[in-house]
Amino acid sequence: MKMNNGNKKRKMARKRAAIWLFSVCLLAVLGCTGCGGAGSAASGYADAKNGVVVVSEYVALDGVEAGVAHGSGFFIGKEGEAPQYLVTNHHVIADYLYFGAGQNTSFTDENGTQYALKSYVRVYFDSEDYVEAYVVGYNEVADVAVLRIASPTDKRRALRLCSPTGDMVGSTVYAIGYPGIADNPVVDSVSTWGLDDLTFTSGIISRLTTTSGTGVQNIQVDVSIGHGNSGGPIVNENGAAVGISAWGVTNDNAEAAAYAVNIDEVIALLNLYGVPYVLETDAPMGSNAVMIGAAGGVALLLIVVLIIVLIVKGKKKKEVLPGVRQEAPAPAVNSPASQPAASSVSGNPSSPGDDSGYRLQGVSGALEGRRFMIRKSVPLTLGRKAEVCNVVFPAATAGVSGKHCQVWYDNGNIWIKDLGASHGTFLTTGEKMSAGQAIQIRTGERFSLGSEAETFVLTQKGGN
Fold first, then answer.
1. What is the pLDDT of residues 123-178, one digit of tens each?
2. Ordered DSSP codes for 333-370
3. Which fold has domain 336-460?
4. Whether CATH 1.20.120.160 fits 50-280
């Protein structure tokens, strides 16, 4: 059958319209991705100082305080909201953790004299204005720590984060912080630790590197980083943090190299503990959040594809594409901190459809004999802190951290992840899991929290 010229022209017009529409939407989606994209409300690197503070450790012996060390830190959080969480290096708070992490303890000197001891972490907005901070979580190997202050503050703003990519090598970055050398006696500054006392140094990203053996991601920079800069942000031209000032090395020839922790290591820790943050792409992130810009762009492209098919085929109404079957989405894994504590299997109020069919059985220790249902929608978080866990151990349980590990269901399988536990999580083989590492476990396999004294086995409904 021959097509007349009118039909040919209409068909060609529909094709041209479809190609034009697809091209426009593809450019729009590409514009929503990457650091510093068109959707980014960048404020500039100089304004990034409004997110930076001093982080200082103190130890009190018999009530007499003494400063141990100080570094820098920066706030993160939701766009437009007063921030409550901040990021720094683990080594900036290492002495606080070593001396009891804020708990009342004691110290005995070489003469046998015993002292009451307590450690603190403080966040300084200036030398006369500070608040106490508390540790949310940390990764000692990656040298990252997340802190929280008691209530949100309007004295600083949250910085956005930018995940470094290879094409950023050679681009300009800035280190912001409070290096101790800046307050030398020659200068003798009249004020310290305020916004006007911040030090900026600039340079470029020399390379992105991964440390052998640990897999920790770092950034080599030629920025000047001094003692006290540790924990402060390395920001791009737009003021988004791409890394954390961390450390440097010098060889016998006085050649030096400076390094920052890749911000991806921070993002992993923030995701682990459900701490909110914002990427430079304007996409709000956090526990159970989605990259709104990217997801919206993908959804837009899917809609456009459907429209194109309809245009080309000349349809006048929507129809389901042949051969395409929509699948039910996987159930969302909700934050355990917002869920009620998990009860034993008997009397569990979960709906039958939410039962994965798997159980955690306490084999030894404080929860020996207890069985916990693994739901499809809510992970089991094991630890001592009732406010963030739904499988809760007694406060004095040795070897178990406040938030120790997590077990969850996904597409017919059961997974376990160590949450940075101080004494580790161990598998049946005796292998110690790395912090943040997720491993699939099968029915009959065991794992232990801290030691074999606190052990669980994965079973199925009705099994022993």
1. 999 888 999 999 988 888 889 999 999 999 999 999 999 998 888 899 999 998 88
2. ---GGGSPPPPBSTT----GGGEEEEEEEEEESTTTT-
3. Tumour Suppressor Smad4 (2.60.200)
4. no
